[in-house]
Structure formats: structure tokens, C-alpha cells
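Hi again,

Forgot to attach this to my earlier email, sorry! This is the prediction with adenosine-5'-diphosphate bound. I've pasted everything inline since the attachment limit keeps bouncing my files.
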Amino acid sequence: MHSVKSTMMPVPLSLNRLMEHAGRLFPESEIVSRLPDKSLRRHRYADWYRRTRSLAAALKKLGLRKGDRVATLCWNHHAHLECYFGVPAAGGVMHTLNLRLSPDDLGWIAHDARDRFLVVDDILLPLYRQFAAHHRFERVIVFPFSGAQVPASAGDPHGGEPAIDDYEALLAHAPTDFEYADHHEDDPVAMCYTSGTTGKPKGVVYSHRSTVLHSLSCALPDYVALSSRDVVIPVTPMFHANSWGIPYAAVMLGSKLVFPGPHLHPEDLLDLMQQEPPTLTLGVPTIWLALIQTFEAHPGRWRLPTGMRSMVGGAAVPEALIRQFARQGIHLAQGWGMTETSPMGSLFFEKPELRGRLSDDEWFARKAMAGVPGPLVEVRIMGDEGACAWNGRDVGELQVRGPFITGSYHGEAPGADKFTADGWLRTGDVAAIDANGYVRIADRTKDLIKSGGEWISSVDLENAIMAHPAVAEAAVIAIAHPKWTERPLACVVTKPGAAVSAAELRAFLAPKFARWQLPDAFEFIDAVPRTSTGKFWKSRLRERFAAWRWPDAPAASEPGSKD
Ligand code: ADP
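C-alpha cells for the complex follow:
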């Protein structure tokens, strides 16, 4: 018997292929960037393709070797998109630095990644100078985002002073005979550090293969449903998990991209949406909470684009927010993911067996979940006694596996704290999956509140409190309790001009929870502290309330009695 071999060509998956495809097939598609002075700069994909090849040629001429890291310290704009493709085209690895981190963290991360070159926005040079001493880049390429002149300098290799180049001058004088660097599909293209919400930042390195598969997978109709007809405003920073991988997928399909630059205030985003109405936006819940509050506070000033859909994730999306947008005809689709998962792990869509069968309330409750895993993402829930059933009730750690999920961290052997012996990523998220395959994130392992031997989900409480009309935002943390181990303390921010008492909030929550799950105390605060990626920074809140003590009286009812 002759065995059968595949007759398919062994062509490697390559980001360069997507770049060529976009350059040839979508020359007229647009890329719009908002500049520091708020004016709009327009490019066509044909310009982007030419400039990206020039960038790659210039980097090679400057001596970039295969695998060298090129850091970016940039807002969302066309030049950043050129780095997304141009650095890998030259054989380099693009490393996005998160400009919201402290200078110490930035220096530490740039050093850990051994970044050789840096591309930086001129308006971010003051930030760069604050960590320049922590890590010596060989070259600093300044993008004249504000239009100011960049004084080029040869630097001083002996004194550790980097050479300074003007990004536009480099492109203008780049060699014209560019050829892609040889590569394998598993070669690295980009790296991101986790934002360190749960400890020291760790580097995740994406490959040509993982990036192409992620782009194909997330663009599918049941997921982001991206197409050449879309106008996308990626509000999620390009330095946060590569703006969820959407720039790669959008270029692959020739979608119009509108970059907000440094202008992320709600008024600015609403103005941009009037000028360049999007069909798709993406961002963390914080952005949309602020945006809808501003929109509703100024009736008639703006119009929200009809039919716009919005991908929201990175943190739990309150059901109240989804309803608020739905009243404006806007569909918020919640997704779950991590830097480690490229990042799209799951996204909401209505599965066939549910179509036309859900009441309004059931539909919104389901939209408040984290969606359905994508085709190449395997998920399981691990409890103390092994894998949990998909019944929507049993919670355990969410573990994932797939071709665009990291199997280790940069410079580290896969440790048992983050990876299981059988090769799954331990996400640190506590979740349940229901019989239809919808994932519900209950909490992060360390944010769960352990009360009298039972667990309370801080996320469920937060979402319920944020549904109160007087509440702008709320975060719930565990406070040690002499009798019950821990009890929930709710930190609440009220809307401007609104007021609500602790007793009123308790009464508002009472129908939705068992009595022992209700927060015993409410503290009214000015703002919930945020991490560099816009998430509730609960460890900061825990520090702030470290000295907080429960009154002598024990909690009102028996935790665990589920009355
Ligand atoms: P970091 O882990 O440093 O915060 P990431 O941006 O990679 O950086 O965050 C991933 C985490 O964000 C997930 O592990 C999860 O805890 C949280 N997250 C993402 N999407 C959701 C969601 N839809 N609901 C709840 N939590 C989410």
C-alpha cells in the first residue's frame, strides 16, 4: 500500500504576504490619523505600502539584524502601523512600549527585551528622556508627529549617547531595492509585555504564523466580522496587545482605519466619530463608560454612528453599559483575551440554537458574558477535582491552548505557575462555561472574595452596583474578617450631582444576591484607580483600605447559608 502525502505547497504563513496582498489589492483604502493639533492626515494604502517598504529598507541599511528588537513608543497613527509591518519585513521584532507605564518600568522592560532601536513620537520624547538612562538604545528614530523639526545627531557610541534620526528623513533616503528578510513562519514578528496587573511584566513574543492565524480567525463573520467595507477606529492602544490584533486583520482585508492619535477624551472621540463615522470601534469598558456619560450629558451635540458595533473587553463589561448603548442602537460585543492569547480568546455572538429563543433579559445577560471561544482556541475549566462540566455553574480556573497562545514567556522556561504539565496556559481567571459554550468570567483568582468557606465574585457585585442610576463606577475588594476570613467592601463613585446611600445600594442589590454575598460596607470614593491599560487597579484599592477594620459586630447573616 502506498501512503498518501499532502500535495499542498509548504508555503510558510507570513505577515509579509499580508502586506504584499494589501499593497497590491487595496491601494485606494484609507488610513486617517489624528495629529497632535487635532487635524486629520490622510494616506492611502498605496502610500502606506511604499512607506512601509522604505522603513524596512532604511532599518536594514542602519544595520538591523534578523531578530533585533525595535521598540516603539507611539500613539495610534499611520507611522505606528508602518512599524507593525515594516519592522518584521526587515527581519526585526517590533516591541510596543506602553507609554502609560512609569519610566522605571519602561526602562526595565526595554532592557529585559534588549531593544536595540527605538521609534518614538516627538511629543513623547520627554517620557523617553526619563528612562533613557535605564536602557541605552543604539538609535532613536523620532517620528515628527507634531510636525516639529527633529535635530538629527550621530550620537556617541562610546559615551552611550544614541544616534538620533528623523523618521521622515530616513524614509525619504531609504534604498529602493528592498527585499524581505528570509524567514520561517515561526520566526518572531512582535512582542508585548503583560501590563503587570498581577506582578512583574512578562514578555510575550508573537510569530508570523500566530499573527496570520489570529488575523484570519478574529476577522470571521461570527466574531469581529471585519471586511473591506469597515471603517475601524481602534481606540485600544497599539501598545496594548497590538490593539487586539485588529490593525493586522484590517490591513489584510483593506478596511479603512481611523487612528485617534493622542486624543482619547470622550469629547475628542465623539468629535472624531462625527468626522469619520466608524462601523467598528474597539476599547476597554472605561472608555465606553466615559463616552456614553459625556454623550448623554450633552443632548443633541453629537450623533452616534447608526449601526456601529463595538468590541469591548480587557475587563468585565457591565450589563448596564451594554443596555445603555443598545438604547442608542449600538451593539457592544464583549470579548475575553489576554496579551498571552494574541489576544482574542472569545467574543460574543448569537449561536443558532439561541436565535429567537431568548427574552430581552436573557439576551442582555448573555451579552454580559465573555462570549464563545474562537475556532482555534481550546478552553477548559479546571476545578480542584479536575475538568469541570460545561453547565454554567461549576467554576474553576480558565485554561486555554492554541496556535496563537503563548507557550512560555520571553527568557523564561515554562513554569508550573503559568502552564500545566499537559501544555495549557493557566489564565488566572476564574470562570464557568455553559452548555452552549458561553464563557462567564467570575473573577481573577486573586480578586475572589472568600467568605465563610464560600466564594463571592467581585465582578458580579460590581456590575450590579454599576446598574444603579446614581453610580458611575464601583470596585469591590476583599477585606480580612476575623470570623468569615474575608468580606466584601464596595468602593463606589457616584455620578456628578448624584447621591445614593449605603442602605439604598444594599436594598438595590438585595433581590439579585444571597444575603451573605452582599457587601457589608460601602465607601464613597472620588475615582477607582486604573492600571496602565485602563483596568480597575484593585491592588491599589486594597493598599488604600489596608488599615480598614470591620466594626465589632459580625456580618449580618451567615455566609454560606445562601438564604
Ligand atoms: P494584564 O494581565 O497585565 O492585566 P492583559 O491586558 O493581558 O494584561 O489582561 C488580561 C486579563 O484581562 C484577563 O486575564 C482577564 O482577567 C481580564 N479580562 C479580559 N477580558 C475580560 C472580560 N471580558 N471579562 C473579565 N475580565 C477580562
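Residues 27 and 46 are 4 Å apart (CA to CA). Residues 558-563 have pLDDT under 50 and may be disordered.

That should be everything now.

G.
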